[in-house]
Design a protein that fits this description.
- This protein has 151 residues and is mainly β.
- 11% of the residues lie in helices and 38% in strands.
- It contains three helices and ten strands, in the order E-E-H-E-E-E-E-E-E-E-H-E-H.
- Strand 5 and strand 6 form a beta hairpin.
- The N and C termini lie far apart (51 Å).
- The relative contact order is 0.25.
Amino acid sequence: MYATRCVIPVIKSPKDYQTYRISPQDSNRLAIIFDSANANTSLTCCVEIFDVGGKTPPNRHQWALEMFFVLKGEGMAICDGKNMPIKAGDSLLVPPTGTHLIKNTGAGRLYTLTIMVPNEDFSELIRSGIPVDLDEEDLAVLGKYDSLIPC
């Protein structure tokens, strides 16, 4: 016998994403899709947007796994000194304690779907940054094409 409880999913679109640049000199932005603040769960799921030549600082996580799925663009993933080219359609899973960075090596922006489980204060770090807006290019990549049509 199945339970009669109904679970209502949380649905968001790009216009709902809160986007931040962690510090003023950063060359990447993170648009939070779901995190512990808006989904009551210990994960962070965001779209990471790297400007041309942009990169993350080298970083590592004590317990969390971090996964990157490349939505658009090309770059280089560096983990524990190993360089791996990445492009649209590629996935990268970084285990806990792996020192890593992602950098955009392409002619346009690099977009990744970035997921960290457990959160390990990642969303709090993002939210402590500078709020920024998604622009028309970002919205087009994320599938919100109607934002480009004038009224």
